[in-house]
Design goal:
By secondary structure, the chain is α/β, with parallel strands linked by helices. It has two domains: about 5-140, Rossmann fold (3-Layer(aba) Sandwich), CATH 3.40.50; about 150-350, Methylesterase CheB, C-terminal domain (Rossmann fold), CATH 3.40.50. The chain has helices at about 5, 20-25, 45-55, 70-80, 95-105, 120-135, 145-150, 175-185, 205-215, 270-280, 300-305, 325-330, 340-350, and strands spanning about 10-15, 35-40, 55-60, 85-90, 110, 165-170, 195-200, 220-225, 235, 245-250, 250-260, 285-290, 310-315, 335-340. The strands form three sheets. Strands 8-9-7-6-12-13-14 form a seven-stranded parallel β-sheet, sandwiched between helices. Strands 2-1-3-4-5 form a five-stranded parallel β-sheet, sandwiched between helices. A two-stranded antiparallel sheet has the order 10-11. α2 (about 20-25) links the parallel β1 (about 10-15) and β2 (about 35-40). α11 runs parallel beside α12 (about 325-330). The radius of gyration is 20 Å and the shape is elongated.
């Protein structure tokens, strides 16, 4: 093995489909950063190979014989913690497997069900490459063993008196769904402000995320609907594929969903939500930017701070990926840097 090969990200591909295994191997032939070191056709084989080969990243299917992907993921995170990307067909309506995988410690997931031609394969390759590069840099210790922290009973002993905060906005990306569960699970159902959330996810998954968070929280959590009024005690998840904004109609705040601006890297965009909150609510907006790769949220934080709003970020010690929080810290003087388990309490105090 050459020095160059040793510097590559070593990937184990796990899928019961020989076609998918070959397709993934072909994706990375000649890739300067990624090398497929082996393949497995079931979860039991995957666990054994992770122990034997110590890959940098594992791509893992869900539906497999002998030991399914979720059971294999749980064993990997307990016995030989390794960054895992779920690569599976997960788009059936209401399918909770992707969210359960994130809860168990997967870094991210990629939906392979739309693959149907050369262009789709190329798009899948780009997405999978980007997520493998991110996963290889993740601190696995922040992914495993967080079940206890996330199992806080809904409406735990926080109290929030009505204040001058009109809206709370939250932005997150990689590592976000479990982080949102940890935060929303500690917020009382009578919190006197609505919460608007942008979580980067593929189309088709934000409704399931909202349903899952609603079951695990004292808050009402729902996917946002264009034109609906926002209410205290309710958290609104931006639907994937559209921007989430605020508009004022008389004395009430309402949801606005649209595709503008079209040139943003992400849709929904944390920047767009923060900029909208700055324009509509000004100093009465409170923002939290949680774990995630990239810079989404930095420009929006500038707009919100300029309008007199308050901005907090998740600390590096608990962020699965400290990209978005750091970008915000570099852009503005934040009002606080807090670990994940203190976000809900900070929110209640600030409101």
């Amino acid at each position: 093995m050459t020095v160059h090969e040793r510097n590559k990200i070593r990937v184990l591909v796990v899928d019961d489909s020989a076609f998918i295994r070959r397709a993934v191997i072909m994706m990375f032939n000649g890739n300067p950063d990624i090398q497929v070191i082996d393949v497995a056709s079931n979860g039991e084989m995957a666990v054994a190979l992770v122990k034997e080969l110590s890959p940098d990243v594992v791509t893992l299917d869900v539906k497999m014989p002998v030991l399914d992907g979720l059971a294999a993921l749980e064993r990997i995170m307990k016995e030989c913690p390794t960054p895992v990307i779920m690569l599976s067909s997960l788009t059936e309506r209401g399918d909770d497997n992707a969210l359960r995988a994130l809860e168990l410690g997967a870094v991210d997931f990629v939906d392979k069900s739309s693959v149907g031609g050369p262009m789709d394969i190329a798009a899948l390759a780009r997405e999978l490459t980007a997520k493998i590069l991110i996963a290889a840099r993740v601190d696995v210790g922040k992914l495993k063993g967080g079940e206890e922290e996330r199992s806080t009973a809904p409406g735990s002993r926080l109290s929030a008196a009505k204040g001058e905060t009109e809206v709370v906005v939250i932005g997150a990306s990689t590592g976000g769904p479990p982080a949102l569960q940890a935060v929303l699970g500690k917020i009382p159902g009578d919190i006197p402000a609505p919460i608007l959330i942008v979580q980067h996810m593929p189309v088709g998954f934000t409704a399931s995320l909202a349903d899952r968070l609603d079951r695990l929280s004292a808050l009402t959590v729902k996917e946002a609907v264009d034109g609906e009024p926002v209410k205290p005690g309710t958290a609104y998840i931006a639907p994937a594929g559209v921007h989430l904004k605020l508009r004022r109609r008389g004395s009430s705040l309402r949801v606005r969903l649209d595709h503008l601006p079209e040139e943003t890297l992400h849709r929904p965009s944390v920047d767009v939500l923060l900029e909208s909150a700055a324009g509509v609510c000004g100093s009465k907006a409170l923002a939290f930017v949680l774990t995630g790769m990239g810079r989404d949220g930095a420009n929006g934080a500038k707009a919100l701070k300029a309008a007199g709003g308050r901005v907090f970020v998740e600390s590096e010690e608990t962020s699965v990926v400290f990209g978005m929080p750091k970008a915000v810290m570099d852009a503005v003087c934040v009002d606080g840097v807090v670990p994940l388990d203190a976000v809900a309490d900070t929110m209640a105090k600030m409101i």
